[in-house]
Amino acid sequence: MTRSRSIFVGCASALLVAACGAGPDGTAGDATAASAVRVGIQVTEAWVRPADSGAASAAYLVLANRGVMADTVVGIVTEAAESASVHETRQHEGTMHMAALPTVAVPAGASVTLAPLGTHVMLLRLRRALRAGDTAAFGFVLSSGDTVPVRAVTRAP
Ligand SMILES: [Cu+2]
Q: 61 CA to middle of ligand 1, Å?
């Protein structure tokens, strides 16, 4: 409880909201994709915003469930940042706010798009700077027990 509230408060700052996609819209383009063969969940079009070491960044991608079983993202593991979680962006009285999203359901045969101004992977306190062309690696932990590895390429939105 305390943790999620502190994340919310931290993300309410203009700087973090900008890092999360409240700035100019971007399109997914043809960023390098990563996929996991073992599990039904595949990740494509993964990219991450450039940011300095110690700062926040956000990653975007498409989660597609090509399996026959529904699955749910229940966490994120990464060496790229001190903290990583899924956030959703909400508009409240004309202001953008972000809040941690504890789980992301991916029904069988469906896909979920994480994009600027919407749901995103929040990376807080990067361990090293992300410059254009750099890769940020993280993994989606699934309720099925699998982890889907992701390699997001850094590019400007
Ligand atoms: Cu965020």
A: 14
In tens, the pLDDT along 42-86 reads 999 999 999 999 999 999 999 999 999 999 999 999 999 999 999
Which residues constitute the domain of residue 23?
2-154
The structural domain count of the chain equals 1
Q: Residue 8 belongs to what H/E stretch?
A: helix 2-11
SS3 content of the chain, % helix, strand, coil (to 5): 10, 50, 40
Two structure tokens written together for 59: 């990653």
Rounded Cα–Cα distance for residues 63 and 36 (Å): 11
CATH number of the domain bearing residue 145: 2.60.40.1890
In angstroms, what is the span from residue 17 Cα to ligand 1's centroid?
7
pLDDT per position as a tens digit, 116-147: 999 999 999 999 999 999 999 999 999 999 99
